[in-house]
Amino acid sequence: MKIPVLEIFGPTIQGEGMVIGQKTMFVRTAGCDYSCSWCDSKFTWDGSEKEKIRLMEPDEIWQELNEQTAGNFAHVTISGGNPALLSGLGAFVDLLHENKINIALETQGSRWQPWFASIDELTLSPKPPSSGMKTNFSILDDIIAKLQEKQKGSCSLKIVIFDLADLAYAKEVHFRYPDVPLFLQVGNDDIENVDDDGLLRYLLNRYDWLVDQVMDSQELVNVRVLPQLHTYLWGNKRGV
Ligand SMILES: C[S@@+](CC[C@H](N)C(=O)[O-])C[C@H]1O[C@@H](n2cnc3c(N)ncnc32)[C@H](O)[C@@H]1O
Ligand SMILES: Nc1nc2[nH]cc(C(=O)O)c2c(=O)[nH]1
Ligand code: SF4
Ligand SMILES: [Mg+2]
């Protein structure tokens, strides 16, 4: 089954969440069922790059990963858009595993796919109020229950934080799923900025703010607070 692909890039470091720092390749699929106000990958769903979408078979993606890197990779992160819209990714996941590649997935937790059970590091990133999206908690409950039952790898929750309402949402999520590792990530509300030094100073301040907020919270005790590391290194550049 063909997969709509918008970007294949790397090797780079995973800049976010549970495998931050991991050397990885990225495969970014097209299409999303959400439209977050601050999405840093709007081109995957706003139609602006629809002529760049390539419909690829799993073995074609595998071939391109190898061509781009001459075999210099052992880990692939699948992101989007929402890759969970694509049942056809199961065959790609199997192909990577046959070739001894570990796999991470980025998704918002709005859809289940049976192939989630095979992902090595699965990040669920439900969206806080600042995004303008509303979480369907019965779907998220179901996904987390299925993962706890079936997944061979590990999963985590990652919530992007812009303001105090987002922090309140993170507390709610943490209370609901106390056994799932929770990562809080600095939100970047300056996604058009091309002044990397200015952006770095700004995002460091936002990280400082977020750390302070979490340190002061009795409800957010067992959590990890992270920057979106790639933006601190390379700003808003695409494909890194
Ligand atoms: C572009 S999304 C694609 C995967 C999936 N749709 C999702 O949202 O989890 C990848 C990650 O980037 C995060 N993200 C998107 N825009 C961001 C921003 N402006 N600042 C910080 N993180 C952002 C999302 O919350 C998500 O965790
Ligand atoms: N380096 C790097 N790390 C990332 N972690 C999650 C990303 C994403 O857009 O899903 C991302 C990305 O685009 N680049
Ligand atoms: S769910 Fe992910 S890809 Fe979709 S709009 Fe939100 S941040 Fe962007
Ligand atoms: Mg990104």
TrEMBL record:
Pfam families: Radical_SAM. This is 7-carboxy-7-deazaguanine synthase. GO terms for molecular function: lyase activity. The gene is queE. [4Fe-4S] cluster binds at C32, C36, C39. Binds 1 [4Fe-4S] cluster. The cluster is coordinated with 3 cysteines and an exchangeable S-adenosyl-L-methionine. HAMAP family: QueE (MF_00917). InterPro entries: 7-CO-7-deazaguanine_synth-like, Aldolase_TIM, Deazaguanine_synth, rSAM, rSAM_sf. It catalyses: 6-carboxy-5,6,7,8-tetrahydropterin + H(+) = 7-carboxy-7-carbaguanine + NH4(+).
